[in-house]
């Protein structure tokens, strides 16, 4: 049982889980810096190049919920290790790719491996650390791994691409993945699951995977086809139909993939919605501020990564050093609202950026406020996982990661599209390139402020009472799914 494991072994297990997650997160940002070199060497078209990102996002986002359920049924460690192995193999195939088609296929496989790792990682953290204080510290470390990894990836991407070539942004995963597999097999607890007969729902899995993939695809292809095109509307409609069919299936299936009772817990559905809004604004912020650095302030890839480091450091200080004691003393909801308030202030400051802005005066004060993310995310994670029984921790983790991916994809697509449209309109009316771009970025930051304000209002209204874990009301010894 995880309750009897010693603190050193739990810390070692947390280190392995964070290392595996860090590899997945790093890959998402490290690749973006290498895109120009990939396009030159492999002959990608401008539209085709985006599929090196989109292929990964579609596979990753679409498979998270299914991957989480597989972890509950087959064993979390088994699925975590399998995901690491698939991701590492796919990284090798990416590094060896010599055609656009080969790279895109390998990126799809990478997304599948990343989904297996991410879907069960959070659930394992929650089940390993049962005491509130220890769980708060563990969630803070896990949150820092995700948030800081994105900024670190941009720095490493520039250095590796310049020094070794684009292939090495993928090949660097080989020793990390091999080490993670080695230590995961020796350190992580290996409790077996009930097997596929304990709750496999093939139809439900097909419906939710197809629905999420169609939704993510609809979002990521708006760069090329636009938000109002028949293609986008058709994909969005297909996604809604499939997801509605999934919910109907879960309400009637003898062995559902997702217990709908979990979604009736206010802290769970409220935290997932708040997270979606928060990730939409913060991931959009990362992309838009990067474009401001490079296209307005003329920073290179390496300079851009360094410019973002204060945000990563602020998040690290808060999530690793402050979030756990503050949440233990004041509660998850107050700290969530405080963290979101800091993010709202960040967006309001950036919404006033000038075209000839100073990094120290105009940008750095806002980046320091990014520490609010390190306070909000651990609180959100605790709330979002609060309705999960131990045998459902994988699917709850998959659900939480799914809303993260949908929110992030939606935020990046919306904020960058609105910024580009605004800049093009102003440029057509005679504005200088710097003024037009900056005005577009200011609009994006203003939208980010609106999304964050909506998240604050939702958290204040919905997350009123502390979560009551379902295990106290529904004993986990005889799950209905096995009947």
Automatic annotation (TrEMBL):
<dbReference type="Pfam" id="PF07690">
    <property type="entry name" value="MFS_1"/>
</dbReference>
<keyword id="KW-0472">Membrane</keyword>
<feature type="transmembrane region" description="Helical">
    <location>
        <begin position="200"/>
        <end position="220"/>
    </location>
</feature>
<feature type="transmembrane region" description="Helical">
    <location>
        <begin position="79"/>
        <end position="98"/>
    </location>
</feature>
<keyword id="KW-1003">Cell membrane</keyword>
<dbReference type="InterPro" id="IPR020846">
    <property type="entry name" value="MFS_dom"/>
</dbReference>
<feature type="transmembrane region" description="Helical">
    <location>
        <begin position="443"/>
        <end position="463"/>
    </location>
</feature>
<protein>
    <submittedName>
        <fullName>MFS transporter</fullName>
    </submittedName>
</protein>
<feature type="transmembrane region" description="Helical">
    <location>
        <begin position="166"/>
        <end position="188"/>
    </location>
</feature>
<feature type="transmembrane region" description="Helical">
    <location>
        <begin position="232"/>
        <end position="248"/>
    </location>
</feature>
<feature type="transmembrane region" description="Helical">
    <location>
        <begin position="305"/>
        <end position="328"/>
    </location>
</feature>
<feature type="transmembrane region" description="Helical">
    <location>
        <begin position="12"/>
        <end position="38"/>
    </location>
</feature>
<feature type="transmembrane region" description="Helical">
    <location>
        <begin position="269"/>
        <end position="293"/>
    </location>
</feature>
<feature type="transmembrane region" description="Helical">
    <location>
        <begin position="335"/>
        <end position="351"/>
    </location>
</feature>
<feature type="domain" description="Major facilitator superfamily (MFS) profile">
    <location>
        <begin position="13"/>
        <end position="472"/>
    </location>
</feature>
<dbReference type="InterPro" id="IPR004638">
    <property type="entry name" value="EmrB-like"/>
</dbReference>
<feature type="transmembrane region" description="Helical">
    <location>
        <begin position="104"/>
        <end position="129"/>
    </location>
</feature>
<keyword id="KW-0812">Transmembrane</keyword>
<feature type="transmembrane region" description="Helical">
    <location>
        <begin position="44"/>
        <end position="67"/>
    </location>
</feature>
<dbReference type="InterPro" id="IPR011701">
    <property type="entry name" value="MFS"/>
</dbReference>
<keyword id="KW-0813">Transport</keyword>
<feature type="transmembrane region" description="Helical">
    <location>
        <begin position="363"/>
        <end position="385"/>
    </location>
</feature>
<feature type="transmembrane region" description="Helical">
    <location>
        <begin position="141"/>
        <end position="160"/>
    </location>
</feature>
<keyword id="KW-1133">Transmembrane helix</keyword>
<feature type="transmembrane region" description="Helical">
    <location>
        <begin position="406"/>
        <end position="423"/>
    </location>
</feature>
<dbReference type="InterPro" id="IPR036259">
    <property type="entry name" value="MFS_trans_sf"/>
</dbReference>
